[in-house]
User: Which sequence fits this backbone?
């Protein structure tokens, strides 16, 4: 299929499908090109293996933004279940509830170590690092040096494959904004004693939420249904289309986009608007004429990961959605318990399925390790952690996910700012959206907001909304109760002209 379309959307993940859904529902001409030959959803898809369902990374359906919650309900009105939010940290052979329970943490760490942590926190508060630039400096200010080394350093360096001194403070301020040791102790004491802690200023730190909604058969349900409804509105969602070229005719303000299929055939589309959720680095390399910011785009980095799903015949169960592995003696970074996301992810009683997540770079030793060696590694490490016995594992599946996380190194912000300015000046009808499309480590609901606002800009015929402002409002990013905001004003997304 080739032809002309008003809006062409590259990528069928949450951002791209939200853009297409919003446009198609309003009667606009839209086509989505998705590289995967079978599944939409991107990293939010659900993978199936012999009836067992896997969530790639874990996706809690929780948002402060009412527009996002309303859209979830509109697309998937009858398939949400309410799930308890339970997580633990595994460190030096012991499990710690996360968020921390003060009495449990005191018992596990011991009085001497706990006192040292509190003293270290006090010193950090007395002498904070002014304008922290790195993840290490930011967390040290919020929790103290000793707690940083116990509960942040090892796991974070597993995730990113780099020193905490080379990771931007932006990542910490987005992911754990609003939480420090005093907040954790106050909330942890309340949890330990069975009390409900009162939200500070009427808000709930997102890291501390106790429940969330979840599609009963995984997040892929949402995006499969979104694609179906886009087609029902008259839009197109085309699979197995790997976009590899975008040519912009400045005189006519028309894009020509080429896509390669797995059978070697090539299709060409023309469009007035292009919405792109493909990685920003690859987008810049695919555009002609070449952008002035090409070298900044080529400097952007990504972190990849793979999941080894172990299927075991066992009655042993535990309530966690996932367990964060801070122990440096194993390579696994996090363990998902798919039954605790939804019992319908496990098709048979008497079985369990755990997803061991390994963070890596595409092409490195872990990424290229043969599947049988990865399964053997995962079985050894799950036995060391003690969640299930390796002998109970009867089957396994492996999912490799490239470009799962845009890397927040010390230079990424300058690069992204330069690319943004260049694109807005040179390609006024090009609209980056989503996590990789904007090189922002955002959540599913943030990605959806970028798509929703981009669709509104296209429908209006001008950039009324600053899409790049999504996820920069700390109050929205990390605090609040689900659907609490009744308008976009709390997100600083009130209509305004963008220069």
Assistant:
């Amino acid at each position: 299929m080739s032809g002309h379309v008003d809006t062409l959307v590259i990528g069928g993940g949450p951002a791209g499908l939200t853009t297409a859904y919003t446009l198609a529902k309003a009667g606009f001409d839209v086509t989505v090109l998705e590289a995967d030959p079978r599944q939409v959803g991107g990293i939010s898809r659900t993978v199936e293996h012999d009836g067992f369902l896997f969530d790639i990374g874990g996706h809690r359906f929780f948002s402060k933004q009412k527009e996002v919650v309303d859209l979830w309900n509109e697309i998937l009105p009858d398939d949400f279940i309410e799930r308890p939010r339970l997580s633990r940290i595994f460190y030096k052979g012991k499990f710690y509830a996360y968020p921390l329970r003060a009495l449990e943490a005191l018992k596990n760490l011991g009085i001497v170590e706990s006192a040292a942590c509190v003293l270290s926190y006090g010193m950090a508060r007395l002498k904070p690092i002014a304008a922290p630039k790195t993840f290490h400096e930011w967390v040290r200010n919020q929790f103290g040096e000793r707690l940083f080394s116990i509960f942040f350093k090892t796991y974070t360096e597993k995730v990113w494959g780099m020193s905490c001194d080379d990771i931007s403070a932006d990542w910490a301020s987005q992911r754990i904004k609003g939480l420090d040791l005093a907040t954790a102790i106050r909330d942890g004491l309340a949890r330990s004693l069975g009390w409900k802690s009162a939200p500070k200023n009427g808000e709930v730190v997102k890291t501390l939420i106790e429940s969330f909604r979840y599609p009963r058969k995984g997040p892929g349900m949402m995006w499969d249904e979104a694609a179906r409804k886009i087609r029902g509105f008259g839009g197109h969602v085309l699979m197995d289309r790997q976009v590899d070229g975008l040519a912009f005719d400045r005189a006519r303000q028309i894009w020509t986009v080429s896509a390669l299929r797995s059978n070697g055939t090539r299709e060409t589309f023309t469009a007035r608007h292009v919405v792109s959720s493909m990685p920003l680095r690859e987008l810049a390399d695919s555009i002609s004429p070449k952008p002035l910011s090409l070298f900044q785009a080529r400097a952007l980095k990504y972190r990849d990961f793979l999941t080894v799903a172990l299927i075991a015949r066992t009655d042993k169960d535990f309530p966690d959605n996932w367990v964060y592995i801070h122990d440096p003696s194993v390579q696994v970074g996090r363990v998902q318990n798919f039954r605790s996301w939804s019992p319908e992810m496990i098709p048979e009683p008497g079985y369990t399925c755990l997803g061991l997540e390994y963070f890596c770079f595409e092409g490195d030793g872990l990424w290229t390790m043969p599947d049988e060696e990865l399964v053997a590694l995962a079985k050894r490490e799950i036995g060391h952690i003690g969640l299930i016995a390796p002998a109970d594992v009867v089957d396994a599946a492996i999912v490799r996910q490239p470009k799962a996380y845009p890397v927040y190194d010390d230079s990424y912000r300058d690069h992204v700012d330069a690319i943004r300015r260049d694109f807005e000046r040179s390609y006024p009808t090009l609209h980056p959206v989503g996590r990789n499309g904007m090189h922002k480590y955002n959540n599913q609901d943030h990605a959806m907001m970028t798509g929703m606002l981009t669709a509104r800009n296209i429908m209006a015929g001008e950039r009324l909304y600053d899409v790049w402002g999504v996820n920069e409002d700390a109050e929205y990013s990390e605090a609040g109760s689900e659907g609490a905001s009744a308008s976009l004003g709390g997100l600083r997304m009130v209509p305004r002209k963008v220069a």
Observations:
- Residues 302-406 form a domain with the Polyamine Oxidase; Chain A, domain 2 fold (CATH 3.90.660.20).
- The radius of gyration is 23 Å.
